[in-house]
Records
---
Amino acid sequence: MSEYIISLQGVTKDFETKNGLVQALKGINLDIEPGDAYGIIGLSGAGKSTLVRCINLLETPTEGKVIFDGKTLTGLKHKDLNLERRKIAMIFQQFNLLMQRDALGNVCFPLEIAGVPKDEAKKRAMELLKIVDLEDRAHSYPSQLSGGQKQRVGIARALATDPKVLLCDEATSALDPKTTRSILALLKKINRELGITLVVITHEMDVIKQVCNKVAIIESGSIVERGEVQEIFTKPKTAAARKLFFPDGEGKETALKISHTHRIRIAFKDEHTYDPVVSNMILELKAPVNILYADMDVVDGHQRGQMVICLSDDEAVAEKQKAYLRAHDVDFAEVDVEEEEEA
Amino acid sequence: METSVLVGLLWQGLLETLYMTIVSTLVAYIIGLPIGVSLIVTSPNGIKPVSWYNKSMGFVVNVIRSVPFLILMIALMPYVRKIIGTGIGTQATVAVLIVAAAPFVARLVEQSLMEVDPGVIEAAQSMGASNMTIIRKVMLLEARPSLLNGAAVATITILGYSAMAGVVGGGGLGDLAIKYGMYRYETTIMWITVIVLVVLVQILQEIGVKAAQKLDNRL
């Protein structure tokens, strides 16, 4: 048994197109631990959909290995692969429900595939519809359900075969903000209470912040940064991460117009969120700072504040201010003006 | 002509036409449905792409479909006579109708199955469904309304073909219309057969549309 539930090793995927060979994935290595809610974020065309389809082999990788729960899926016979796929459920942006079956019938479908007797399947399906709060719509057809309800049916269907992993492919991208929140809350609950590992594909950082504990940022077929969501939110290393986490925080229109050497970004941890650290620093050092941007956010269940400030023009005072922040255990990073402008 | 004789002739013609239409439609579906399914399944974007099969089967279907029915019928007559012993009458017509209609049905089925959302098929694959399950429980069921509409179109087309077989003594209402209406200038019989055929087509179309609506849960 491996300690990882999913392990991708050097996964490459090439597509033959009219304009020649396109490399959608370039040697992806990714390890996901059981119980993780692992986010994979990137802009459209970055390869995230292809990546998630390589996990359950809806797309066959051109090169590389996919290991699920200690078993190498790549190279398995179709029949054996189908058995493994029952443990890897998937939900979709467009829900992909059977239009000719009612909600109950849709949830029964994976059980039928798994050869569960009809009565038993129906009973189990009703339980699942209860979990997703749709027991009263069991006999409604997808065309009679709203987007959020359809996705709930999709989730119930995905849970039917007691999967170990739930792959979510842009599961909330077709939903309005309110419905999105309720679906994300449901996914979080599934992750926490049922212990099902989530792999969440999205282009929206809010989805990652609400559901995931870990994240990988994918850009043109490669993972450019990965780690704990908390960690990356606090100290993003790459321009790609900063752009995704703070689409307007360090934007050109606000901060960059003021050219300043001592510009830093502070990310407050839980314990600091309620402390007036910056105010105290100003009072104590008797030197003002210029606040360019400030925001408060909830990341993976933790309150997180962030702020971009300009320290004093005076080199010596600026150093004192930095020392003050360090002394008070506040994480900050110098904002690299050059790099941001390139990005 | 006496009314009772006329009614008798029409009744017999109607029964023959119905017999030819129903039997050949059924057999055409028995042959054409699996061919249509196989064309979708083996297509480049299908669940089991098999290029050589798809191309050659597609070619065969196209060749038979491109021969006008009347010509196909005359061309096949000697072979039909050899195999079933006669080149005229309803039996011979049914044999030719099946050959002409099966590829037509295959294309209709293929078209209906093309409408099935690829996302739903992908979802079934992600659940570990076998290709057979996907064909039976996803593709054919999801395409059911479209398949039924297609079946109405197929039946009406075959009905039309069967009337055409009257030219070579194929039996049925077409035969009646040609023998009496054309050769004997009995325009009354001609027009009565036309009316009967129109009514038949209306009924078949109605049944097809109604059945498709009733069995479509998207509405």
---
Amino acid sequence: MRLPPNKRINESAIKAWRLFATLIAVIPLAVTVALFILAYYFDFSVWIGIVALLISLMESIITIIVIPRLRWNRWRYQIFDEEIYIQHGILIVSQTLIPMIRVQHVDTKQGPILKRYGLASLTIYTAATTHEIPALSLEEASELRDLISERARVEQDDV
Amino acid sequence: MFEPKRLHPTAILFFGIKTLRQSLVGLLPVIILALNDGFVLYTILGILFILIVVVGQSFLSWYRFTYTLEEDQLLMEQGVLIRKKRTISKHRIQSIDLTQTVVHRIFGLTKVQIETAGSDSKTDAALSSLTLEDGKWLHDQLKIKQESETSAITSLENSEQDSYPKRVISLKSLIIAGSTSGSFGVLISLVALLTFDLDSFVPESFYNKATTWFIGLAMEMMVLLSLLSILSVWILGIFSTVIKYGNFSITRYDRELFITRGLLEKKQTTIPLNRIQAVGIKESLIRQPFGFATLYVEIAGGEINKNGDAQTLLFPMLKKQSIPTFLKEILPEYQNVPNQFSPVSKRSLPYYLLKMIWLPMLAIIVGIIFVPNWIYIPGIALVGAALIGFSQYKTNGVHLSKEQLTIQFRLLTKETVLLKQQRIQAFEQNQHLLYKWHRLANMKLSVLNNFTGRHYTIPGLEMNLVNELANWFSYKKE
């Protein structure tokens, strides 16, 4: 693999991902609670609920505490004059090169969770692929968006 | 100066047939129900009413549909209730098709389809019926501006004048193409089935002295019948290939490729050279042993066939070793077809095998538990999967020259793809922990074709090689 890109994404990304994972983790917990209630009212083994509780606790710990940190740690990007270089992935590390002249358009997006932390995501589209840098500070994202679209503005005769 | 034009009035017919066909599916059950309940008069009245509506609507759609050829764009207006205007810039056109179905040919008409790289899955502009002269005129007008207009128009009209390189398919290769197409696979599998000991397919409990003879006969009849039907499918496959690709010819002009094909439905396709994203050679399992291959290009736009492939054929059937000469003549930009490929790493073999056999392995484990008598079926699948995995490992490879990256890979069909650096949209390399430890990496290349793009993955390459490829692709050398 090549040398990793030199820039990290915004550190608040970890908080934002944790908040998101927490919201998602409500679902298995709700199922667990439902199992306990069912076990109370009907003739139903409590053990199923206990197993479900253990599984959902494990899942919550992994997705809320472990994964966001690892993910943030791996995420790098670098914008060169002629190409964009991205690295991400926890178990499978992937490095992607996108030539500037292939970029069709760039988006910045901000959902309610990212907004809470003043973050935005940047999506880069080529004619065949899309690539997302998930969490940058809002100003940085807009700057990058303008920078990339500036550099991508080359005569494209073939697409 | 730029006058709006209408389609040929037969377009009313095509509009009408299209609407009828769409509404038939919904209406048929209602009609049958009504007829059963004895509402014959009402049904006939209803059908008449629908017919009138369809005819009126088709007439109005025809009336409202106009196209205008302006300086460097095509403007189309259509729609009865919802008016729609669409402009297509000449500079964004990926390919132009002229199609003549049997009906079109009787009236001397043609259908014109214009493709751009847009994300619309339907054709971007379809003019369902024009006179042939109008169609050809439009076709010539829409081609890229820089084109020296005289050459293309004259050579289009009298194609006997052979100053440009041209290749025509022979009937013999068409028949070979048809007989080795998909339907042949069914034939092979049936023959393979027959050579098996048939008895092993009938569980022993079925054997009963009184019925042995009868079942035997029935089996033979069934086998004979299915053999006959499969044979006819095969022959039909040959016929449909001959009809679809009959008179296939490809001509190279200065800045474009011109393809015509079809015995009943005639189709002409124009592909501007600078729209070609990649060139590929396909050798299916059946064709590869005979040394035959199919040549295609990746372009944005182009038809999607029933297999979901969105590639455009350059030539339906060629001897593999004659491909370089063919390309030299027709598409010299891509004439370098390498023979030697750097193979994938030896250390990747276990991963190739594992990827193919995990599913049959699972089936075997389940089989041992539940139906131990039938264990040989997943057993055969396991051997087959392992063989496929091994041949993928043997086939996959890359070849790098200064201006071209050539990759060779196999799922079942062996494919060789020739790629230029400036046509690759994105380059990705990835590895998981085991790969990192083994110093291996996967490579993924994306090129533009219809809407999702085409993505080529070569797993299990040496990491140094992938780095070298990344350096070739990147503007920043390391």
